[in-house]
Amino acid sequence: MPKIMLAEDDTTMLSLLEILLKMEGFEVHALQPDSNIIEAVLREKPDILLMDVHLLNENGIDVLTKMRAMAGGGAVRVVMASGLDFNDQCMARGANAFIQKPFMPDDLIAILRSVS
To answer: 37 Cβ partners below 8 Å, 6+ apart?
Structure first.
């Protein structure tokens, strides 16, 4: 099963995602809200990064843009999430998929499986 890294600053959402994905058989690495996402991705080499657009100290779209511009930053598949419709912006910056919150667990699992 793919290794998924979670970049989400809502601790309740982070816990729920971690439980759901582990129940579905994924290997899950949840980042702390103040983690350096790009460093963590380059170090841990997840198959998929599930990242919120609105993070505690930064904008997920900016993180995505920086990561895609770095050597090795294009290897990880990125699924972006937000309560607002940022689909076009995320896809234009190199995301592999976008899901709008609130979402059904089955919809998220389907997206993760489709990009893995």
So the answer is: 7, 31, 49, 51, 55, 58, 63, 67
